[in-house]
Amino acid sequence: FNRFMPWMMNPDGTELETLNHIGRHELGDYFVQSFLNDGELSEFIDDQDRLSDNRYAVDNLFSLREDPTAPGLYFATNGSEFYTHGAGQIVTISGSPSTNANAMVVTSITHPETADPTNNPSPQHSGLYRNPLPLRDGSVVAVHTAETRVDFNSGTREAPRSRYNFRIKQLVKSGKYWQAGAPLTAGIEKSVSYYDPDVLVEYSGELWELQPVELVSRERPVVRTSTVPAIEESVFDDAGITLLEFQAYLAELDLAMVVTRDVRSRDEADKQQPFTLRLGESGKNAVSGLQFLQGSQIRAYESFVSGRRTLAQLMGAILIPEEVKDSSSIGSYRIFPDGSVAAIVPAQRALSWQLVASSGEPIVRERYWVTFQPGEVRVCASCHGLNERDQNGAGVPRNKPEALRAILAWWKSASSRDIRNPDGYLVSPGGDEVQTVRLQVKRRGRRVTIRLPRRYPLSLIADAALVISNPKGKSIERSFGAQRSKIVSLPRRMSQGRITVNLVQGGAILFEKVIRGARR
After folding, report:
1. 48: which residues sit within 8 A by CB, 6+ positions away?
2. What pTM was computed for the model?
3. Which residue in 45, 46, 131 sits closest to 84, CA to CA?
4. Closest of 298, 297, 304, 307 to residue 477, by C-alpha
5. DSSP H helical segments within 382-515, as ranges?
6. How far apart are the first and last CA of the chain?
7. Within 10 Å of residue 421's Cβ, how many Cβ atoms?
8. pLDDT digits (tens, 9 = 90+) for 209-229
9. Pairing of β 286-287 and β 332-334
C-alpha cells in the first residue's frame, strides 16, 4: 500500500500529518473495503461516493512547491511510483491552512495524458515532467523529458544509458494546458565514474538537470509550534499538572503522548472500514484497545538479500501502566467508556496503530506511518479526523478524555515514571514473543568481540545467530553457542569500513549495532 500524499509538519517536526488531513477519500478514485464479508462496508467509487469538491483523482503527488504569488496553492507532480523517476503530469492543489480537506481541489496544468508513461503517445502527450517551480514573476519552470516510455538502461551496467534527458524548461501555454518550452541552459556535460558496488561505472555526456530553485530574498516566515487544545489543557489543570512539566518529563525520556477523544468517531466518507464501533468484549465491531506498532528495519537474513525494509512489529518499547493498559494485546492501550485513549509512545520512531478486539483481532487499521517528537502531546479528536461530520451526523467530539485523566493520575502518584523498556518485546514472523538484548561489542582490527551481559540467561540466545554485514552487501553468519563471549575474525573483504552487528532469532532482530571502520 503505497500512496504518496502531501504532508505537513512544524519546523521542529511536531504535528506531522497529511496536508489538512487530506487522504484517499478526497484524492483517490477507487479502493475496496477492508472486509468483503461485511455488508455494512462498501467499495469506494470516485464520483459515486466522493463527498469532496475535488473531481480529479490522483494516486501520488510528488515534489510539492508553493506558489509564491498565491500562498496555499501548491504545484506538484502526479506520476507513477515506479519506472519514471517520479516524472508525470504537473498539477496544482489548493491547500491553505484554513482550507477544509473537502474543499481542496486538484487542477491539471499539463495534459492529463502526461500523468502516465506510454509506448503509443497521442499528440496531447508532451512528455514527462517533475520538480515544478512557480516563480515570483508568475511563470513556471519544470524538469522535462520528451520521452513518453518508461525508462530503461539501453547500455550496460558498466556504461549505462538512459532513455530520459531531463532538462529544466520554461512552461508555455498551448491551448487549455501547458507544455515544455525551451531549455533554460545550454546543457551540462561531464565525465563521471563510480563503483556499484565493486563494478566500475563510467559515463560521459549530458547530465540531468533536477530540482531547480529560485534565488530570491524572502521574508522570514513566522515559526509555527505545536499547541494543545483547550479541552485537553483543562484536564491538565484539573489534575494539578502543568503541561510544560509533563512535556519536560516526556522530552527527557524521548517520549511523546497521543490523545484521542473518541475512537468511535470517524469521517462520514469512510465506509470502507468498520464504522459502527462499540466498546465491549464481544459482538460485531466491538473494540477494547488501541494497539501500536513500531517500524523496525529488518533484513531477509535467511537468503542474505542486501538492504532492509521497514516492517511493522508490535510495540514493546513502553511498559504500559496498568491504569491505561489493554491486557488483551501487546502494545495496546485501553479504550475508556467515553471512547478516549491516552498513550505514551516512543518519540522519533515510525509508528502506526489499529483498533483491536479483546481477542487481539484488528478491526480498524491505520494506513500510514507517523512519527512524534520528544515532549510532543498530540491530540486527535476522532480516530479518522472529521472534515465536517461523522457517519451519525455528529460533529467533532468535545468530551474531556477520561483516558487522559487516568494517565495523569498515574503520573502524579507513580513511584517510577520511567516506563521505557530497553529490553522490549518484538514479535517474530512466527508470532512468538522474543526478547531483545543489549550486547557488548568491541572491534580491534579484523577481530570483533561480542559479549552477553550476565543479567541475561544463556537460554535467551541458544538458537540465535550473529550476522555481521557491511554496506556493500557482504555478510557472515556465526552461531553464538552456549557461551557468553564470542570472537569473530572478519574476512579481508570486510576488514575495513563500517560494519553492522546483528543478533537474529527466527527472523526477528534481537540486537543491532553499527561499528565504525577499524583504525589502521
Report:
1. none
2. 0.81
3. 131
4. 304
5. 402-413
6. 46
7. 16
8. 999 999 999 888 888 889 999
9. unpaired
